[in-house]
Amino acid sequence: MNLLRRFLRTPEAIAGAVILAALFAMALAASLLFPGDPQAIAGTALLLPFQDWSLPLGTDRLGRDVLAELFHGARTSLAVGLAAAAAALAVGAIVGTLAGFAGGLADEVLMRITDAFQTVPSFLLALAFVSIVGPSLGVVVAAIALGAWTGPARVARAEVLSIRERDFVAGARVIGMHPLEIAFREVLPNALPPVLALSSVIVAAAILTEAALSFLGLGDPNRVTWGGMIAEGRAMLRTAPFLSIIPGVALVLTVLGVYLAGEGVVETTAAMRGLS
Amino acid sequence: MTRALTLLRRRLVGSIFVLLIVVIGTFLLLEAAPGDAVDAYIVSTGGDAGMIELLRHRWGLDQTELTRLANYLWALLHLDLGQSVTFSRPIRDVILERLPNTLLLMGSATVLSFGLGSALGIYAGARPGGFRDRLLSIGSLALHAVPGFWLGLVLIIVFAVDLRWLPIGGIETLVSAKTGLERAADIARHLVLPVSALGFIYLALYLRMMRAGMAEVWRQDFVLAARAKGLSRRRIVLHHVARNALLPLVTMLGLQSVQMLGGSVVIESVFSVPGLGRLAQEAVAARDTPLLLGIILTSAVLVVVINLLVDIAYALLDPRVGASEAGA
Q: How far B281 CA sits from the closest chain A CA (Å)?
């Protein structure tokens, strides 16, 4: 509880926590509050927001309930953002640990591959990957992770380089532990904190990339996404701008919430390290 | 100058390896794509099984993967990216035609985000922890949370649809037959919104980095000395603190170029700017994989070149960089 209180000390962290909590609530409640297909027709087309209280945010040009789509879109954004970030952090941590611990040629090769991935704009890479493999939720997650693992890999490698010289690693060697076991059971867990500090930035970037992919029509066609809603609303930009503005505001708030909460976590852990 | 040249030579060797890995990567993606160049060709021209067989043989597609990779590399060495099915023209020509527009967009957006970002960063970093600092930090974070394509749409709604101040998209007025300065002004008018959309999103990074750098410099002894000398606060902020925090921002320019190339895909799509990014979107829509991979390769080369230029600029600006490497 002490930890939580320390986390909630700055107004920024509180704002971030509130936004994220609301978002998770939206994602969890989506099926309860709006059961059935959110892409089904719910009323007259192009109903403005705040006119009819059974459809509070109005309807799009096909008469679909914007609020229902917004709730179901929260689910996609969160799921893709978290899954892609988890995959990127895991791959990055493993590659970075292998490179840093093995050293020599393996390090050289792995780091040049990392360089190569950082040379290609990650959004173009994701675009190419999805368009070749075909759009589905899993492919979108993989495509985003493909461009996001390099940062964690570099941080993990740098951390491992300093950890591998410590005494407990030498000790593990002396008792005859297998090098891979030392790398993943002794070194990797100790190298994780700075890698995990990147999570908020990576989750935020993943949510934005997912939105951009679905905006260009490369999201999972069977799911509602905020990016897809904005793309839909684009055709009605002159007559019904609210259709693109509402999901965009949701995206901005979500990403901002992730950033703010992330900064709060970093500050809390820094303060704790200062105390101990 | 020799220092910069030694640095350039070392980076160049490393870059060639990196580009080779990128090429192998794109080749693998090309292989993974359903259908090959012959299938695409037959779809647009028509032909029977015998024709397919003949073409596969002539284009070397019936050989082993290693031979095909060698052929691919050989063609790339001759700057041959293959034929685009959608445009029925060499991919290289299509890309070279679109590249200047993207460079213009990216260049202007970089000037905007670097200039305004570092200026606001100085403003925030003049008093770290102060009210202005907090406000700008939150503001820049909020700006960084905005998806580029959505900011573009909002700018269109406000400035092109409602106020009608600026054109809704495109790079210049079609069939206007404007020339010289008049044409340049027309292009500039078309670029205001896309450059703002692209530039404002990346502004936050420069602002935050400048501000963090200044907060660091404030703690150093020479700032205390400058204060003890009785220099004005304005002079200390601009000449002592900001100046020392500005240099690391230059390295960001290279890193930023990669992200901006990615960001330009959606911005160019929103504003119908006929550049490399919109070409990528067109390639995806038309399932023209070789064209898409050609764009990726071009971007990778562009990123490498920009990073080399940034490295050289940095070495010229900071005498400490590469001094040990040149001596060795």
A: 8
Largest CA distance in chain A: 75
Q: What is the pLDDT of residues B23-74, one digit of tens each?
A: 888 888 888 777 666 676 676 666 777 777 777 777 666 777 778 788 888 8
* Cross-chain residue pair B262–A256, CB shorter than 8 Å: no
Report the gap between the CA of B12 and the closest CA in chain A (Å). Answer: 13
Q: Judge whether A138 and A129 are in contact, CB under 8 Å.
A: no
- Burial tier of B302 (Cβ tally within 10 Å: 0-12, 13-18, 19+): buried
* pTM, rounded to two decimals: 0.88
The answer to whether A204 and A144 have CB atoms below 8 angstroms apart is: no
Write down the ipTM of this complex.
Answer: 0.85
Tokens 């503001």 belong to which residue? B139
- Which of B147, B161, B299 lies at the smallest CB-CB distance from A238? B161
With CB atoms and an 8 Å threshold, state whether A133 touches B32: yes
Residues B86 and B283: beta-carbon distance below 8 Å: yes
Tell whether A21 lies on the interface with B, counting CB pairs under 8 A: no
Rounded Cα distance between A13 and A9, Å, is 7
pLDDT surpassing 80 at residue A56: no
Asked if B299 and B98 count as a contact pair (C-beta separation under 8 A), the reply is no
Q: How many CA atoms lie within 13 A of B78 on its CB side?
A: 8
Indicate the length of chain B as a whole number: 328
